[in-house]
Amino acid sequence: MSYIDGFVIAVPTANKQKYIEHAHHINPLFKELGATRTMECWGDDIPDGTLTDFRKAVNAKDDESIVFAWFEWPDKETRDQGMERMHELAESDERFDETKYPVPFDGKRMIFGGFETLVEI
Prior knowledge:
The longest helix has 17 residues, at 16-32. Helix content is 29%, strand content 26%. It is α+β, with helices and mostly antiparallel strands and 121 residues long. The chain has one domain (3-116): Alpha-Beta Plaits (2-Layer Sandwich). The chain is built from three helices and four strands.
């Protein structure tokens, strides 16, 4: 079964188009490294929770929107190799040059993790 990398981030709502452009720029690299699919979703119905919720999880401000995304890999081994290669490329590949391609969000507030697929219908 496939392996999923998932993440949630807060993005300034005013940066929605910049975020879309960023995703179109960087996501093809994940495909080059073995991901079979990438999915980026802009929050549309994000309710406030009583104990926790998406907004609290990433310390979102009033002027920020929530992005929920995942990258699908054929398996964990492909993902691990792809991520290792990405870290190597980050040192030399101009696609990672943040002066040319600024990241339109605060990456320190991103929550992320890798997930083993249990059920796929």
